[in-house]
Every structure is written in C-alpha cells, then in structure tokens.
Specification:
heterodimer; A: alpha/beta; 2 domains; 10 helices; globular; B: alpha/beta; N-terminal domain of TfIIb; Dimethylsulfoxide Reductase, domain 2; seven-stranded mixed β-sheet; six-stranded mixed beta barrel
C-alpha cells in the first residue's frame, strides 16, 4: 500500500520508510518495483535526518517519505533555507499514536495531510518544564548542571537532528567547546539550544538518542516557549518568516546566508 | 540508484552495538543507530557514529606487497601467497613447527579466528596461536575458569539497568564502553548506588555515590578488606556460600589479616569509606560488579580476578538477574576470538589442547594429527623471538609495535624474525617490519560474526566491496592453508565456517548464521532449539561448585623508587581506540583528541614546576617519550596516566613486560616512571 501511494499516486522515484528486517525495525529506501517488508510506524526513526544524509547523492530523483507533523515542520525549515527542494521531497502524512504524542509531550501532532494513522489529540504541557520554571533559577541551574555532567559528547543530539545542517559545527570549534575530555561543559548545550531556537521543531530525536538520558526535549521546549512569548516566533512555519536570529527585520530571505 | 541501510555490528569496543551503515551506490555515507537493538537501544557513542569514517580512507592497503631489498614491491595475490607458503614451509622444515607463531585477531570475526587457529594447529602443526586477549583479559579467562568454570560476563548488558548497586573497578566505562556506561546511568537515574574504585577520577566516578581511589597495584588489599568487613559484620550470604561454593574456610582464613588500618596503608583508601562500600555492596538486593583492564593488567592479575570472584560469591551476587561479575571485554570480538580458540592452550569453546580425548575429537574433525603441547602466549612469543627460538610470525590484524608492553623489545624481536607477515587494513607500526603485507577487508566489507562482551553472537553484514584487491581474512587464511597442502579449507562463505565451528564447539552448537539473522543468541547455545543463555551459573556454576581462592596482596613487579618516583598507568580515552589505526583516520575523532598527553596531579606538577600544556619527558627503566602535560586533579598524587593510542609518544615504550605467571598478561597498569621538564 505504501509503495503504491509513493510511486503511483505521488510519483516518487524513491521511498524512505521504516520496516521490519533481521528481527529489527530500521530505515529502508526502495525504488519502484522493489519489495519491502512490513512497514512499522511505531518505531520513531528520524527520517528527515536520514533523508538529509543521502540527499546530496540522489541527483534529481524525487523521494517520498513518511512524514509526521514535526517532520513537515523540519522540512519547512530546510526548504526555506534552500537546503532541500520542496518538489523533490514528497510527504506521506503519518499521524502519531497517542503513546508517541505523550512521549514527545507534543502540542501539534497532526500532519497537514494524513495518509496513515488517526489524528491524535495534543498532549498537555511538558511537566518537567513546568516544574523547572517554578523553581528558583539557582535550583534550575543546578538541575541542568547535574544533567550536563552526564554528557559523553557523542554528538547524537546534532547528528540525529533534522535541522542541524551547518557544514562546520560550532560545537566542533575549539573557541566554543574545548577539545579533549568529557563532559564538554555547559557551553556545549547552551550554544546548541540558542543556535536551534529559530528552527527546532521539537521532534524529540535529540532526547531519544541521548545515551545519558538528558531531557533535551524539555530544554528545547523551554527555548521555544521564550521564543514565542518574546518574539511571537514559532519554528516550522512554511511561510517565509524571517528566522529571528539570522535576518534583520524587513530584509528579504534571498539575501540571507544559507549557511547558518 | 541504490540506497541501502545495512544492519551490522560496531567494530570498536566489546559492547557490540548494532547500527545501520548507509550506503549510496557503493559509497559509505553514514551511520544510523538501530532503535530496536536490544544492546544499544538506538544509542551510540562518538566512535560508533564515526565507524564509517575510516572505511574508504585513501591509506587503505589495496594490494599485496613483498619486501625486496629495502622496499616493498607490489605483487599479485598468487605471488604473495606462494611466497608466504614457501617461507612457512622452509622455516617449518628447518626449525620445526613450533618456531612459527600465528597471531589471531580480536578485530576479526569468529569464523576468521576459527580458521586462524585451525591453520596454526592442523596445517602448520603448532599451538602457537594467540592474540591481544593476552593483553586484556587473559587473567579473567584464567581466574574465572578457576573460580566459576567460565571466563565471561555472567550477566547481560541490559541487566545493568536494574541493578541497585554497581561496583565499577578498573573500568573507565563511560569512555571505554560508553553504551554500557549509558546503562549504568539509567540505573543511576533509577536510584542505584554506583561505587567506583580507580586511581583516576573518571566521568563515571564523578557521578558515583562512593568514589574510592586506590593506589595502582593494591587491588587485592581493598577487595580482601571488603570481604573481611562483610564476614565480620555478618553480611555473608550464608545459603549461597553453603550450597553453591567450596573452600569458604580458606577464604575466611586468607582475609583475616586484612584489617582496615592495614588496608588503608596499602591502598590509600580511607577505611570508613571502604567499609561503607562493603556494606552497600553486600546489602543491595541486586548488585553487579563491572571491571576491566585496571584489574586484569597486573603481574598478579589472575589473583585479583579471583579476589573479585570471592567478593561476588561471598555476597551471593551471582547467578541471578542483575547480580553478577562482569568483565567488560575491550575489543569488538575479543570474546569471540577467545571462544573460537585463538589461544595457545585452548581449542574453540575453551576445550584444552592437553586433554587427550579432546585432542582426539579435533584430530578426527580436522583429519590431522595435532600437537599435544600448549603453545606460546603472545608475550612469550615475543620473548622467544628475541632469543632466536621463534623464527616467524604471521600476524592477522594486530599492531604489536604499539599495543604490547616494552616495545623497544618488541621491535628487536620483530627484527630478529626471519619471516614477518602482516595482514591488515592499513599500514601500521608493525607492518613496517613485515616481509609480506596482505591487504584485508574491514568489518564493513565482509560477512561473519562478532561475539560481544555479554556473549551475544552478532552478525556482520557486508555493506560494500573491499577496496582494490583486498580480501576478507577468512579467504586469505583458506588460500594460504590450501597452498600449504591442507584439506578442509574449502569454504564458500563465513556461514559455512560457522557451521563447522558449531560442530566442534559445544557452547556454539546451536548457532548458525540463519538463526542469528533474526534471533539474539548468547552462548552457551548448545542446540538448534536452544534459545541461548543470558545469565550464567543460575543453578550451579559451570564447574559445579564455585571455588573460593585464598589470594594475597603482592606489590607490583616494579615499585616507585627515588629515580622513578611515579606510578605510570595506561589506558584509553573516549575518542581514540587502541593503536589508532582506525580512529586516527577518522577526522571527527582525531579532532577531539589529536595528540598524546600525560595526566599528572596538580600538586605533583606544581612541585616539578610543570604547567598545563607544557612539553615534558616521561621515562621509565625501558625508555623515554616526550609529550604534553595535562595537569589535573583527576589523578591521585604520585600516579601519572598516559593513553596508549599515540605512535608519536607510545606509552608502551615505557611499560613493563613483567608477566602474570598464570595467564602471562603483562603489568601494563603499573610501572615506575619519572617526569621531567623537556
């Protein structure tokens, strides 16, 4: 059913999805006519990230992928920076399950078109976030300091992030994060938080892939809350809203630097 | 356009994480974690995420070479293998088969290691087959065989999640086994108490409930001290000791002299803290011990391992879920290379070569008379080469010129040999001494299996073709064996090799590639319908009753002196891996830890007038190296630490090749050294 949708209805050349294989569930890319095992939408692979890894190598081919609401938003962030071509990336709308919505504390779970799954209700606010916001700031700092001490500098949070796309990552630059040694210190996490504040779509992949169990999604949600309150900015808008931290008000997107 | 995600097993540490290699039209573009993998749970460390980075590096060896005069000359496989076979025959005829040693490899698959040892035993006719397990857990294999009857992790990696107490000693888990470390963090999150005992502060010890720093080389003293507290305070698991073990009286007698005052003076661990650690460990419902090189790499390593076995048995923390003694194996397949018989005294499956019945079984299976005498260990082979008793080494994927202790002597040994053949994926410090170099396929370019540290047999799946003319090691071993006139090497695939190995290896009896394709199997897995064994020693120990071993503190072979006042200890860091053959060619890893350094305590550095980042000379009785000082409070005064990854300042220029008499493991963790301003 998924291949027909991708190749016949949407006119894709390639399909990116998750399916069963070798006793596991993993990503798969097939061309028209190729078979795929049972599709599994319950294992949340970050397909936009997987797409961006292979995107430079697929030429002018059109690729369809399973697309949650957060994936749509991530693609919007990439498209408005000219990093992927909207016409070459076709979406198969995937509505997340109630469990997944809860796991992501997701307030915006339904994609614009639903091909698979039933639209679920948004989850309530992030409990940890509210708990932290109720704390005095010293205590909040203590909490995050303790969390960041567990960081093992695997870069999973950047490598799996659908909207981390800089060729040269500031987290790999010695001016900001000293090489050698773990944990890498507070600046590693805070630079990342601020750097992503105009594009993070709260997909939660950083938190899911963190071996140290640092509640990174909560950190992102806190930044997003401030962005909305202070600037009225919400990431993932398809319209050409100027990203707050990279463009001066009134300047057209065309003049914007696409690198950062 | 062909885009594939090939599920395979990480080539770095012994955790055995599975991940997907992303391949686009034969080009390796990335690594994607496998979210349903029971071991990694979709997490990877920085090395795992960069496991694709070295594979298509321009330095890869891509054609066979033989030495001609001073230069290496490119030759065909025919010529290289013919030359190697004729040299082996010449040396065997002239000096006998025991003048040749085969070094198997913990970086190669089970199937390949099975073939390496079969090549040595059934074709060349010697039990001289060994590999780098000699340098890491030889003392575990010997010690736990004595105590339990099986020298492997008693539990599984996921069980760390649910432990109430984890005693971590001589293991820098978050750096050396990061994804096992992440399990420990999960336990911590659930309220587990972590106890660390290490001369250095590690990323894990900074999170521990009880952090103890012992002097290097004093392990038996603190372990016996803990056992004495446990006995004195009535915290022994009496039922377990009574029904499951033997020789408790000997243990009681042995530890009776380890008063905590005395222990404190030997180890430097405050007595109250040690007593507290003993109580927490003994009283926890589910307690696991994890240990690594800090325990094993001593000239009494086997005894230290036995001491830890005593501690686990006396508290009954064995044979149950989240209760056990867990040696963390360092290489992707060091467990498997031991399982497959890459050891001079053991056939595949830990069957003794000096047991007549066993030998008869293998003689029948392989259709050859087999040598009855156990062979040379790696460390002894080097010593024998130095005195001209060993004439040839055939080295599959090992870099002894950086990994072995006292490399000045290793270098002399290699120069003495009439034949050095090296099979590897990159040129190495060792291959520069080779007469013949054969290019091998790396993990991403072949099928086979690795057995991880928790005895899970994990498939490697070929993701792309080897570069140039490189061959997988299994094919090289088979082609060489055939040229030496052997039968029994006609394998079309690694799966067929595993089928033969399973027939002669009871713990692998039920294992084959088609089962592994979809099942998670841990040995022992004796039959095709057996589901594998997650926890060892549940009803009884492999050997029947667990045996308490009375062991005593013994000072290290070399102690600090006036001239060499520091204790030098060596190890890994997070970003580099062993001799750096792969990681130093992975830009993101090299970027993080690009140069050698010596960690020295702030107080010691001040006294010597050394500032952080300054170049210093570190020397021992065996040599000297120049490198940068990393001044830190993370190492105790009087000790220094050097990672052994760096050829430009090799820590093993300094280390002591003093051997544990039982297992022949060298004392890589202690030698006397001095530090001077350069």
């Amino acid at each position: 059913m998924l291949p027909e949708l991708a190749f016949d209805k949407l006119g894709a050349d390639l399909l990116l999805a998750m399916c069963e294989g070798h006793g596991n569930v993993g990503p798969i890319v097939i061309s028209k006519g190729e078979k795929m095992a049972k599709v599994r939408t319950d294992v949340p692979y970050q397909l936009v990230t997987i797409l961006t890894n292979i995107y430079p190598f697929i030429g002018q081919k059109k690729l369809a992928l399973l697309c949650r609401r957060c994936d749509e938003k991530a693609l919007a962030e990439l498209e408005k920076r000219g990093l992927v071509d909207e016409k070459r990336v076709l979406r198969i709308g995937l509505a997340c399950s109630a469990d997944q919505i809860k796991a992501c504390r997701c307030s915006d779970p339904v994609p614009s078109v639903v091909h698979i799954g039933a639209p679920g209700k948004p989850a309530g606010e992030d409990e940890l976030m509210n708990k932290l916001l109720a704390m005095p700031s010293e205590e909040r700092l203590k909490f995050w300091t303790a969390q960041f001490r567990k960081c093992n500098k695997c870069f999973a949070c950047t490598l799996n992030c659908p909207v981390c796309f800089c060729d040269d990552c500031v987290l790999e630059e010695r001016t900001f994060v000293a090489e050698k040694g773990i944990p890498p210190g507070m600046s590693f996490h805070l630079i990342r938080t601020f750097h992503l504040s105009d594009k993070c779509v709260e997909c939660g992949e950083c938190e899911r892939s963190c071996p140290a169990g640092i509640p990174l999604l909560t950190l992102r949600k806190m930044a997003a809350k401030d962005m909305k309150a202070l600037y009225g900015f919400v990431s993932g808008d398809k319209k050409k809203v100027s990203p707050l931290l990279t463009t001066l008000e009134g300047e057209p997107m065309e003049d914007e630097c696409h690198e950062c | 356009m062909n885009v594939e995600h090939v599920l395979t097993t990480c080539p770095y540490c012994g955790t055995g994480c599975n991940f997907y290699l992303q391949v686009v039209d034969g080009r390796l573009v990335g690594v994607v974690p496998c979210k349903t993998d029971e071991i990694s749970l979709g997490k990877l460390c920085i090395k795992g995420y960069n496991a694709h980075a070295f594979v298509q590096h321009p330095d890869r060896l891509i054609h066979p070479m033989v030495r001609q005069g001073g230069d290496m000359r490119r030759v065909s496989w025919e010529e290289a293998l013919d030359k190697l076979a004729s040299e082996i025959k010449r040396i065997r005829d002239k000096y006998g088969p025991d003048s040749i040693a085969v070094l198997a490899s913990a970086k190669c698959t089970n199937e390949e290691n099975y073939l390496f040892q079969k090549l040595a035993r059934a074709v060349i006719g010697t039990n001289n087959v060994d590999h780098c397990a000699r340098l890491c857990h030889a003392s575990t294999v010997a010690g736990l065989l004595y105590s339990f009857g099986s020298g492997a992790m008693t539990n599984t990696i996921p069980e760390f999640d649910n432990a109430d107490c984890i005693l971590v000693t001589g293991s820098n888990t978050l750096e050396a086994h990061p994804i096992i470390g992440s399990r420990m963090l999960r336990a911590l999150e659930k309220g587990a108490k972590i106890i660390t005992v290490d001369p250095r502060d590690t990323p894990l010890s900074r999170l521990a409930a009880i952090k103890l720093n012992q002097k290097s080389g004093s392990d038996i003293a603190w372990i016996n001290g803990m056992i004495k507290v446990i006995i004195d305070e009535g915290l022994v698991d009496g039922e377990f000791v009574e029904t499951r073990t033997t020789d408790f009286a000997k243990l009681k007698e042995a530890v009776s002299g380890y008063h905590l005052d005395k222990v404190e003076s030997i180890t430097g661990i405050p007595k109250d803290r040690l007593a507290e650690a003993a109580r927490v460990f003994a009283k926890s419902k589910r307690a696991m011990v994890a240990y690594a090189m800090g325990i094993t790499q001593h000239s009494n390593g086997t005894d230290i391992v036995k001491a830890l076995a005593n501690l686990s048995m006396v508290t009954g923390h064995l044979g149950k879920e989240s209760n056990g003694l867990n040696p963390l194996r360092g290489q992707c397949n060091v467990q498997g290379s031991c399982d497959a018989g890459g050891l001079p005294n053991l056939y595949p499956g830990y069957q003794r070569v000096d047991d007549e019945q066993t030998r008869a079984k293998f003689e029948q299976a392989w259709g050859q008379r087999l040598p009855p005498k156990p062979g040379l260990t790696l460390t002894c082979a080097v010593k024998d080469a130095l005195v001209g008793k060993l004439k040839a080494m055939i080295i599959f994927g090992e870099n002894i010129m950086l990994s072995d202790p006292d490399i000045t002597h290793v270098e002399q040994a290699l120069k003495e040999l009439e034949l050095v053949a090296v099979v590897d994926i990159f040129p190495t410090e060792t291959s520069s001494f080779a007469h013949i170099i054969l290019p091998a396929a790396c993990y991403a370019e072949k099928d086979g299996t690795f057995t991880n540290t928790d005895r899970s047999v994990r498939l490697l799946r070929k993701a792309l073709a080897p570069p140039g003319e490189a061959w997988p090691d299994w094919k090289i071993a088979c082609e060489l064996a055939k040229r030496l006139g052997a039968n029994g090497f006609d394998f079309a695939s690694p799966a067929q090799v595993m089928d033969e190995m399973a027939k002669v290896t009871p713990i692998y009896g039920g294992i084959d590639h088609s089962r592994l394709d979809s099942e998670h199997l841990r040995w022992p897995c004796p039959t095709k319908d057996h589901k594998g064994t997650p926890i060892l020693h549940t009803q009884k120990f492999t050997k029947g009753l667990g045996t308490f071993a009375p062991v005593h503190h013994k000072p290290p072979a070399e102690e600090p002196s006036e001239e060499y006042p520091f204790i030098l200890t060596t190890g890994r860091n997070l970003f580099q891996y062993h001799t750096g053959t792969m990681t130093r060619r992975s830009p993101k890893l090299e970027r993080e830890a690009p140069e050698p350094y010596v960690e020295i305590n702030t107080g010691d550095a001040k006294r010597l007038g050394i500032v952080d980042g300054e170049r210093v000379m570190v020397s021992s009785r065996r040599g000297a190296i120049s490198l940068k000082a990393a001044v830190t409070d993370r190492i105790i005064p009087g000790s220094i630490f050097i990672p052994f990854h760096y050829a430009e300042a090799p820590a093993n220029r300094l280390t002591n090749a003093a051997l544990d008499p039982v297992s022949n493991i060298p004392e890589l963790k202690v030698c006397a050294a001095k530090v001077q301003k350069a």
